[in-house]
Amino acid sequence: MIWNSTKTENKAANKADLSRTLTDPAYTEKKIVEAGWGLLGSKNFTSLNWDIPRPFSRNLPKPTSAKSVQVCPAAVDFDARYYVLCAPETIDLRLAFAASGRATLEQSFQDPAAEALLKDVFTFKLANSTSWRHLNRPIVEFESPYVFLSDEDVFINLTSAFMHYTQPALPGLVLNSRFPLNLWPRKLAWAFEWYDTSRPLVIKKGEPWFYVSFESIDPSRRVRLVNAEITPGIGEFVHKISAVSQFAKQTQALIMGQQKDRPSKLLIAPKS
Fold this sequence. Notes:
By secondary structure, this protein is of the alpha+beta class. It is built from six helices and 14 strands.
């Protein structure tokens, strides 16, 4: 799916806009674009300590040389564009197969006393096999309470925690995603494609779960992530527009059809 920006109809104008230099006052005033994040979930979702998006960082010793990778501007700039979300509870999943070959998902909880509550707010599900990319690679899904939004053309990228070394490696791949926050401010969904179905999927509490990064239509503009208030009106719109992901082939058309109900402003600062 290719998203069309709401501000890219005139190609000549776009080219002129992107060719402006950083010395242009009108340009530098809008060098930073903001995206917001908040939480929106069921009645009991706050019972888990959901992590805040934290800028990616490395615990490294001081560089011993000016040529160290630690001070390479290209590497530093790349790292600085990612935020880390850690698991609020241990993810411990296994696949079981019936004699017919039908797969079922089994989830274990570390705290038996809290199992009933966790089942309500932290239960993963096996996607319908019709949505799998390969018959032998089941896909597991989880709809998180994280909501990211913006009033400008900002895209979010969800990826695996690929800059963190894990041992053993996960038994498959996190499904990456990218979508516009000003048009589709839905609850962030995490999905995993299971390659080695004989091995469990385990991500311990507090370990990196996935990354998010942001981009605007002008790559030179930095995106600043801020805390946002999810008002009842915004929450209603998020729930409504999140549902269109059930119709993969018509998703973009359905999202554009929902824009008539979009609140005039999505990014609202929390009340002090």
